[in-house]
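Dear all,

This email documents one entry for the complex benchmark we are building for the journal club exercise. For each entry we list the sequence lines for every component of the assembly. Then comes the predicted three-dimensional structure of the complex as a token string, followed by one or two observations. Please use this as the template for your own entries, and keep the labels exactly as they appear.
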Amino acid sequence: MKGKEGSVVQTDWRALLEAEKTLDSGVYTKHDLLIVRGKGARVWDAEGNEYIDCVGGYGVANLGHANPEVVEAVKRQAETLLSMPQTLPTEARARFYLALTSVLPPELNRVFPTNSGTEANEAALKFARAATGRKKFVAAMRGFSGRTMGSLSVTWEPKYREPFLPLVEPVAFIPYNDVEALRQAVDEETAAVILEPVQGEGGVRPATREFLEAAREVTREKGALLILDEIQTGMGRTGTRFAFERYGVVPDILTLAKALGGGVPLGAAVMRKEVAEKMPKGGHGTTFGGNPLAMAAGVAALEYLEKTRLWERAERLGRWFMEELRKIPSPKVREVRGLGLMVGLELKEKSLPYIQRLEKEHHVLTLAAGPNVIRFLPPLVIEEEDLAKVVEAVRAVL
Ligand SMILES: *Cc1c(COP(=O)(O)O)cnc(C)c1O
């Protein structure tokens, strides 16, 4: 077990896996394999085993692992300019702003770039307070907005929140898809309502049209903002470019991350000019946000998505996939639901043993969404044959 000459790093893969497990902070329960490579919807471990990846980086890998156009853009940018703060304009950042706003409704025309999803939501919450002069947020039960203190304040799950109280207040949580509760919660004190068009972490639950329409209407009536968190649902995942397009509801602030950088860390809060204008100069900031590497990756990712229209593939394959899952004759299944290739299979029992068997017995990687749901977030480039194998694997373990 010797490292490379002059290197302090062990090269034996078992030692590396052990090192990651023991030196890690321990906040994640880790799988028992060392991933070394990915291509499209497949990944390989250190022993050369091949897996169909329906974890998809929690929704990062929409364009496929090692997407060649993203890789090429990253290489080119790395050789040209890696870092540059936002006070100094760069070609890459300008191109990213043009690319992103060109695929959004014209009113969403101001961008705050970030390095992650939670930072995009942190920005959204601060812009909302600055723009309205109000404090209160309305969020949904089972909603997930991230793990930092601000985003956590509008995240519902008690086990994520309670050890860290007090958080930002006041926040009112209402049942998702409950129009009446929403109307009652939004008042003259409300800065913003924040919602996911499909709840991801909360169990893969699509919003009803009435709910998102009501959210748009009541925020307008009360002078509050509507923030749509499309960190997981954006970039083609749900069968349209962004999920809000399907609902015909345009938010005041749209938050994006996960697949936005084609695999490179990148997020953004995109907002109306009137919202951005109310933030004082220096009222928010980020050193790495908008760095040239992430910006170049974002341009390549957006261009690839436009060229391939992968959302159409997500819609078609997602419909087929859900139909096939619904045909599995198992009394253990409560419901199959989702939008596009964001799919949840809810069981009448804990999903974790099935997730583990899918990995060990069938080399299919999936993730949970709450205790009883198996969540599938495959790269949108997944081959039909691979998706058929996933159906067979699920049938076998159930
Ligand atoms: C993943 C996710 C976040 C947080 O993004 P990070 O990059 O992990 O901070 C926020 N909202 C939703 C809907 C998400 O799926």
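Observations: The CA atoms of residues 137 and 171 lie 5 Å apart. DSSP finds 15 helices and 17 strands in the chain.
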